[in-house]
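Quick illustration for those who missed Monday's session on complexes.
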Amino acid sequence: MSNDIVAALQDIVGERHVLSGDAVAEIGFPWNTHSGCAARAIVKPASTEEVAAIMRCCNLAGQTVVPFGGMTNLVQGCATAADDIVLSLARMNRVEDVDRPAATMTAQAGVTLHAAQEAAAAADLFFPLDIGARASCQLGGLAANNAGGNKVIRYGMTRDTVLGLEAVLADGTVISSMNRYIKNNSGFDLKHLFIGSEGVLGIITRLVFRLRATARSHNVALLACGSFDDVIAMLEIANRTLPTTISAFEVMWDSFYDRAVQPRGRLAPPLEPGAGLYVLIETMGVDQEHDTTAFEALLEDLMNQDLCVDGMLAKSDRERELIWEIRDEVEPVIGGAHNFDVSLRSADVGEYVSKVEAAITALFPEASVIGFGHLGDNNVHISVADVVWDDKKIRQVEEQVYGCLAPFDGAISAEHGIGLEKRAYLPISRSQAEIELMKSLKRMLDPKNILNPGKVVDAASQ
Ligand SMILES: Cc1cc2nc3c(=O)[nH]c(=O)nc-3n(C[C@H](O)[C@H](O)[C@H](O)COP(=O)(O)OP(=O)(O)OC[C@H]3O[C@@H](n4cnc5c(N)ncnc54)[C@H](O)[C@@H]3O)c2cc1C
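Prediction with flavin-adenine dinucleotide bound:
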């Protein structure tokens, strides 16, 4: 079958758009999130029709298919086996339309997030999603993961931003649900089946996004705090005083800041390391003068209440970028580490991180437990670094991170998804009935279990 299927795929997309042999092994993951790629071939369609033809062909042959977007996923969602076919959306990279009056963007799934942000900006509109992997990750991958990111506190997750989408099912059926309206209650909202389904229910080929007005004011500050209770008090005050303009509230423990800034890290430190915790607060609004006055008043209030020990208000676009660069500097943190992404009540995050750190360092004294994340939307990332990993140690660390989470009724994935990595732990966050329904949907839409098999749920098991 192997040669037949590769030849059939070449007939659909053209020989030069099918990679095989050494060319597959040479494919690199931009953030080294997976150990490598093994596959029978990588096929790169240019249109929905080609994706549909590929899926018809693979379904007939019972051939497994793993969709690849920008390959930045952090939960082994793009893991492959040697006999898989990888379907890469990289050539479907066209922004089809930006409708200014309607504030919508229609685009193919392989457009990178950065290109979508630029296309929106060129029409004086704002693309409301943003994550550190913006240069590589794609719109289809963001939707497949229901990614969150840096502006969720203001604009919501990807699910809140997608108005419509088109997806190709395992048997090649095209489901075009390219709604462009904010309101459309005409039957089931089928896009939600595919958003967050991590490529197991269909291949997302095109999307319609809701754009927002470009901000006319932008304020960013970096604050240093001595205790997590102070951070929570700051979050509450910021949410209460600037409810319409707050767009990010990010937290970094010392352990993160230390790896990001000099002398250990790469970036110049705007505030001295060693404070304990660092908070990035951002607002976006409509009037720079008015919003800066309100922002400065907030910072003064936080200082007067002794909630922060030091602070820097960015005075220029460059300074705003510099502060964001620190928060986006995840490479020295996540590289070589085992990375977690959980949700729980923001007020419980400090206690939870302390418990995880104590539990892990009791097992592995050499471990560094690094905390950071989107605290404004209940989300903390924990990276466990400086451990020489083997499967047993990974399992032990996972058991501590998720074991400590259970009493807080937390979610094992805030935004990165389940992939292969977290599948065994899904029952912590989802009931058996929910998992069975997920499996039933998977079996109904993909009876031969060819689409990204084994990710999220094991549909082959009863
Ligand atoms: C530096 C860095 C920062 C990050 N920051 C954040 C963050 O702030 N918030 C956040 O939520 N995530 C974050 N992530 C992880 C995040 O999940 C991904 O970056 C992004 O959502 C994945 O997009 P991608 O195009 O790279 O998809 P991929 O990694 O290629 O794929 C993701 C999953 O979706 C499937 N898939 C891909 N494309 C399609 C498609 N068109 N149709 C169907 N299935 C598809 C894949 O099989 C895989 O299971 C970060 C990752 C990195 C490396």
